[in-house]
Amino acid sequence: MINSRCSGSYYYQCNQEAAGVEEHWQVDRSSSTQLILSRREVPAMGIRLEVNSAESAGDYTQCIVQWQIDQPENSLHLQANYEFLPDQLRVTRHMGAQQEQRSEPIDGFVFSPLMRIYNGAAIRALQERGPSRVLTPWIRDHQQQNKMLWPLYSERKVELLGEEYISVDGVDLPCQKFEYSGGEYGAGTQFWLDEHDVMTRYSWQQDPKTRWDVLLQNYQRED
After folding, report:
1. Which residue has the higher pLDDT, 216 or 96?
2. CA 20 to 30 Å from 33, out of 60, 63, 135, 210?
3. Could you tell me where the DSSP H helices lie in 67-139?
């Protein structure tokens, strides 16, 4: 039985212009479980990413990551199943008819599977633990098919900078502002979380010429 539900989407800007990225998510909670459904699309490039996860008693039990590109000269569909067992992480990757599997110990890493709806929980965990290893599925270059969706680890940390109001759908929400660094995030990357640890905004300088700004929209809660 679902006790609460929240949903929303993220609007991406690159250098203050619409980036053509669509990202939608939904979180369903019961007394002991949480399900997250999320999807990101770049229609102009034929790219689609889906991440769906399940948690029980606050711990991940499974996460399915699907990545596909459909272009006239290039088509590829990959899926990776992350299974969180009592003593190990088991990852099964599917590419067409091919299947590969890897297992490794669960050693206290923070799991942050790509989508913006997962950023809040990851940042909060880093705030509580201090600098830690963060696991994200690898999607940096789809030309390197042998690496796509396998676990990627990086050392990351957060620092609470203060509190600010962020406008979401015309409503000013009180948020905590964090600097998040490590992995692909350099100094100056900032994230804002509302009282429910939902990311309301983030700002990232990818390189000297590329700055991203992502804003929460269509935010609904049924508690």
Report:
1. 216
2. 135
3. 119-129
Q: What is the rounded distance in angstroms from the CA atom of residue 161 to the CA atom of residue 58?
A: 26
Q: How far is CA 164 from CA 18, 157, 161, in A?
A: 24, 20, 10
Q: How many CA atoms lie within 13 A of 177 on its CB side?
A: 11
How would residue 113 be classed by pLDDT, with cut points 50, 70 and 90? very high
Tokens, residue 38? 């999320």
Beta carbons within 8 Å of 171's beta carbon, 6+ residues apart: none
| Type of residue numbered 27 | V
pLDDT at 8: 98
Q: CA-to-CA distance for 199 and 7, rounded, in angstroms?
A: 12
* Residue 47, both tokens: 């790219």
Percent of the residues in the chain that have a pLDDT greater than 90, as a whole number: 84
Here the contacts of 171-178 (C-beta below 8 Å, separation 24 or greater) are: 173/200, 175/200, 175/201, 178/123, 178/127
Give the pLDDT confidence score for residue 223 in this predicted structure.
81
Q: How far apart are the C-alpha atoms of 112 and 58, rounded to whole Å?
A: 14
Cα–Cα distance, 127 to 77 (Å, whole number): 35
Query: What is the end-to-end Cα distance of the chain in Å, rounded?
Result: 13
- The DSSP secondary-structure symbol of 118 reads G
Question: Residue 201 class from Cβ within 10 Å (0-12 exposed, 13-18 middle, 19+ buried)?
Answer: buried
Give 148's pLDDT tier (boundaries 50, 70, 90).
very high
Q: Are 123 and 100 in contact (CB under 8 A)?
A: no
